[in-house]
Write a structure and sequence with these properties.
Number of strands: 9
Strand order of the largest sheet: 3-2-1-9-4
Helix content: 25-40%
Order of helices and strands: HHEEEEEEEEHE
Largest sheet: 5 strands, mixed
C-alpha cells in the first residue's frame, strides 16, 4: 500500500476513534443524546459508483476522500443500480460462476455482485466486467480496509446510472 494512502487511512482511523470516544458520553444526558445522534450520522462510508462515468467516489463522513476509475458490467452484463449495504467480505474469493476467477478484496453487496480488485487495470474506466465493480488492486485493498474499519453497517454502496 502506498505511504500516502496509509497516512490517509491512519487519519481516518483517528477520526473514527475520536468519534467513538464521544459516544461514551460526558455525563450530561442532553449533551450525550445530541452527540450520540450526531455520531450515528458520522463515521460512515458511502461509495458512489457512476455507471456512466465509470468512477467510484468514496465519501467518509460526507467528505470526498477517494475517487477511482472502475469497470462495471460490460455488454450483455448488468451492474445493479440502487443503494446497498455490504453483505459479506473476503480478502480472496474465487468466482464459482466464472471459472474460479480471482476476486481479491471482495466486498459483496447483492448476491454474487461485489466491489473487488482486478488485474485488468487497462480496462478501468470502461465497462468490462460480468456485473461486479472492478477496482485497481491498490484501491480495492484500501476500500476493503475502510469497510473493515468502519464496519459493513456503516457502509453504503450506491450505484447510479
Amino acid at each position: 500500500m502506498h505511504t500516502a494512502i496509509s497516512a490517509k487511512l491512519i487519519s481516518i482511523a483517528a477520526a473514527v476513534t475520536a468519534g467513538a470516544a464521544l459516544l461514551f458520553g460526558t455525563g450530561n444526558g442532553v449533551a450525550d443524546a445530541a452527540n450520540g445522534a450526531a455520531n450515528r450520522a458520522a463515521n460512515q462510508i458511502v461509495a458512489r459508483i457512476s455507471l456512466s462515468q465509470q468512477t467510484m467516489e468514496v465519501l467518509v463522513d460526507g467528505r470526498p476522500t477517494f475517487a477511482w476509475k472502475v469497470s462495471t458490467g460490460g455488454k450483455g452484463h448488468v451492474t445493479p443500480i440502487g443503494s446497498f449495504k455490504p453483505t459479506r467480505m473476503h480478502q480472496m474469493w474465487y468466482s464459482r460462476k466464472y471459472d474460479n476467477a480471482p476476486m481479491p478484496h471482495s466486498v459483496f453487496f447483492k448476491g454474487g455482485y461485489a466491489v473487488h480488485a482486478t488485474n485488468f487495470v487497462r480496462r478501468l474506466g470502461q465497462p468490462a466486467s460480468h456485473g461486479c465493480v472492478r477496482l485497481h488492486p491498490d484501491n480495492a485493498a484500501d476500500f476493503y480496509q475502510l469497510v473493515e474499519m468502519f464496519g459493513p453497517t456503516n457502509t453504503r454502496i450506491v450505484i447510479v446510472k
